[in-house]
Amino acid sequence: MTTYQVAPVDWRQVFLRVRFENAETVAPLILCISPCRSGSTVLLRVFGASGIPSFYQPWKNVLRWAMQGVEWFWDFPTGSTPVFVKETIGPYTLTETKFNPFELVQAIHYPLHKLRLMLVARDPLQTWVSWQTLWGEKTRFEIFYAAFEQVETIRRQIQSAGLPLVHFVYEAVRDYGAESAIRGLFAQLGLPFTRQAITGWFSLPPFGEDGSNIFYPQEPPVFSVPNIHEKVETADSLEFFARSEPFAGVPVDQVDQIRHSELQTWYETWRRTHYAVLDAQGG
Question: CA-to-CA distance for 99 and 107, rounded, in angstroms?
Fold first, then answer.
């Protein structure tokens, strides 16, 4: 049996293992928060191809090492170039659904004037099908629901703090096209857009290798899933993928449950917020 957590978690200690030396020299941060399997991994390629160092859930990795009883640290880069950090909620344990990257930046006193925040999501039914396909009995619907709930909680915390929040749903790539979706995203983040962000990736260094601007952490072995990102890692451009209904292995009553749940309500709020911005931008 796989044991994802063998040690208790002291959240304060976990947070303080994400470090920076100087608020003046620490790199600006674009922090992306989403439920697992929301389409956020491909954004590493989008941002990396645009010259922005992009990190695959380094902070959750610190948490996962703590869950294995091991101290692990991550140090912020320095300089004026922004860094993109994508963090996901879930999927194996309820402990992972309590992870709050926004609370982390507050706990370590990261300078908020250098912080830009993103919420990324995908249609919840498509997301759950992806969880089931990839992890099966290694996860549970309770954990899936809690992951979405935590993202909504974080969204409200950011709003209460009066900080700007950029919404991005994966379906925008389908509904507006890759260029309009990413051009609109970059405009909100104050970043220049080039075509390299969405296409021509075969001409770039392989995903996660030197020169790609994409950085994977060293994960605890128990969390390693071979070929989990193969489709993204071998893509030449940003495309929309979705599974066709009916969904294999997902009971009809569970489909109805998701479609009539708060999960769907939250997602629709996030989607409307995103699409309203794209429409205003002429996307």
Answer: 13
